[in-house]
Amino acid sequence: MLELAVKGNKWYWGWMVVLLGVIGAGFGLYLMQLKFGLGITGMSRDVSWGFYIANFTYLVGVAAGGVMVVLPFYLHDYKAYGKITILGEFLAIAAIVMCLLFILVDLGVPTRALNVLLYPTLNSVLFYDAIVLNGYLFLNLVIGWNVLEAERNGVHYQSWLKPLIYISIPWAVSIHTVTAYLYCGLPGRHFWLTAVLAPRFLASAFAAGPALLILLCLFIRRFTNFDPGRQQIQTLAKTVAYAICINVFFFLCEIFVAFYSQIPGHMDHIKYLFVGLHGHGVLVPWMWASMILMTVGIVLTVTPATRKNETSLAIACIVIIMGTWIDKGLGMISGGFVPNPMHEVNEYIPTLPEIGITLGVYAMGALVLTVLYKMAVGVKEEVHG
Amino acid sequence: MNNSRRRFLQIAGVSALGLGAKPVLDAFAAGGGEGPGFHVARGEDALDAKQWAMVIDTRQLQSSADLEPIVEACHKVHNVPTTIVNKNHEIKWIWEAHYHNAFTDKTNPFLNESVEHRPFLLLCNHCENPPCVRACPTKATFKRERDGIVLMDFHRCIGCRFCMAACPFGARSFNFRDPRPFIQETNKQFPTRAKGVVEKCNFCAERLAVGKMPACVEASNGAIAFGDLYDEHSEVRELLKENYTIRRKQTLGTEPAVYYIV
Questions:
Q1: What residues of chain B lie within 8 A of the CB of A115, using their CB?
Q2: Taking CB atoms and an 8 Å limit, are A44 and B89 in contact across chains?
Q3: Do A188 and B157 touch (CB under 8 A)?
Q4: Do B164 and A44 touch (CB under 8 A)?
Q5: What is the pLDDT of residue B28?
Q6: What range defines the domain where residue B53 resides?
Q7: ipTM over the 0.95 cut-off
Q8: Alpha carbons B197 and B202: distance in angstroms, whole number
Q9: Do B167 and A37 touch (CB under 8 A)?
């Protein structure tokens, strides 16, 4: 099916060239980082994880979000989603590719990455994270590819795929749960030390993933001969509406626990994020922006009129993606490290090379997604066109 | 032809996966397994303990001037780069802190004045239940069963910094750049580190192996005691019996092995 991805108009190739350019620039900056060390980033002794791990965490959510089309189709026999499950699975593949790249660029000694498998350490959550992420990538590749090929050939997909499909559903939940466990099992990091972290991660994932999927569906309808379908988009929109509400609800639960108990260790991180601490507060405007964006997203997706109007729905999806990205990407990681274990405030701001490498990884993901979607849409056009 | 090539690729793919999984399966089969430091060479005079512990008598260390030679002795013997200007990239194994930074859960608004103005030495606590060891995905940091020291294998560390997030004491530093140009005088008896790995205090495991006390203990003029926590006649146990001591964040359950007399 790959041949479908090497046929395209000038816009397609133009887009690919742009992506390759960004990837090239990011790779150049990465070579700089390899030479100098992670010192070219804004990370420090106190904030020892930054932009890379933040984006990694966010994209694990996007990958897990794909299950929101797979589950209704295969478990509830919601037939309408049959048309777009492949889009959810291929989005997951692109997201996981980015996750793995973000982990790789974050390593101090990337040449030793395979030590995780050579010296498997069963008490480390990172070991399990490596297993579930690679497993999820593998599952989606096998399932997505074979189901699409079967559709192209006009036959039912192979029966041995069925158990893999069923496994992939709880597996999607596991990738984000394990990723949350990276953080919430650490003593002395009060911001993360909460049982609601994994559910909160999942809620934000099931808002952000489907929101991105809606935007991609709208794009595909506009620029190709394949229509993912109005009903499909509307059902996804309801998923987004519920998930973003639950995400904000979980956040408010955190606020209640911290500020009603008034335990300083729990309040300090939230204070740092929303009002600043000891005169430091680079993230304050960002966090409020995130809250406003998510609130606007709730209003637009919960109100039937704005949800049903695809223009306002698209706006809702954009603000939800931005809001959850700031919440989980910028706030969640920095917020956990500031103040540090000695209650000192040392802030983190990503550097330009760091942002460049990040953009390079995103471009790589976009490239993978473009190729996969080109194939999927090509098959859909052949079959339905 | 086409079909057999596809078949070949499928088999090759599955075989590659199998090869990759072998060490994982081996580990499951072998169960626990020792950390890499199990085979560290020991001298004939090596000092032994069930769990090394430290008691710092802060009453004898009243000013920065008292701490300076201690910090310097450690950093010198362990090739810690001390001339890095950028605070973000700082490496420290043992350092000075205020009381309210050292004991964040024991700060009273009105404190004994001498304690409040006294400098405190912070270092790795060599916890009996270390969260950093739990977090490390490669056993590059491990608790040596022989004597309870939390050690690091600089050659195995992948630089993921999970241990830094896991440590509630801020005891770990990461080499954000090549540290070697920032070492004032290299001690050939101890390795320097490369960029990209984490490091921290090792309770002078290399000195204990040849019968010497840790460098900070030696430089402290008797203010720091070092011994076996589980030998009731050891110097540290005698001190713990006679004095009221505190530890950092002991409510977290990591069981720090560094005690402070205040």
A1: 137-138, 140, 156, 158
A2: yes
A3: no
A4: no
A5: 52
A6: 37-261
A7: no
A8: 15
A9: no
Which residues from chain A sit within 8 angstroms of residue B88, using beta carbons? Answer: 39, 42-45, 346
- Which has the higher per-residue pLDDT, A385 or B118? B118
In this structure, the answer to whether residues B90 and B73 fall within a common structural domain is: yes
Q: Where are the domains of chain A?
A: 2-384
Q: Cβ–Cβ of B170/A39 closer than 8 Å?
A: no
- Banded pLDDT at B34 (limits 50, 70, 90): very low
Nearest in space to A369 (alpha carbons), one of A7, A63, A157:
A63
Is B41 in the same domain as B1?
no
Task: Assess whether pLDDT exceeds 90 at residue A331.
Answer: yes
Q: Do A44 and A346 contact (CB within 8 A), yes or no? A: yes
Q: What pLDDT does residue A2 have?
A: 84
Counting the structural domains of chain B, the total is 2
pLDDT (tens digit per residue) in A178-227: 999 999 999 989 999 999 999 999 999 999 999 999 999 999 999 999 99
The H or E element that residue A96 is part of is helix A85-106
CATH of the domain at B204: 3.30.70.20
pLDDT (average), residues B92-100: 96
Per-residue tokens: A55 = 């984006």
Are residue B72 and residue B198 in the same domain, yes or no? yes
Task: Indicate if B7 and B137 belong to the same structural domain.
Answer: no
pLDDT per residue as tens digits for the range A6-37: 888 999 999 999 999 999 999 999 999 999 99
Chain B neighbors of A39, CB-CB under 8 A: 86, 88-89, 176-177, 195
Give contacts of A 265-304 with B, CB under 8 A: 265
**B195 in the same domain as B237:** yes
Q: Does A125 touch chain B (CB under 8 A)?
A: yes
B22 and B114 in one domain? no
Q: Which CATH architecture has domain A2-384?
A: Up-down Bundle (1.20)
Q: Which residues contact A326 (CB under 8 A, 6 or more apart)?
A: A286, A287, A289, A290, A293
Question: For residues A254 and A103, is the Cβ–Cβ distance under 8 A?
Answer: no
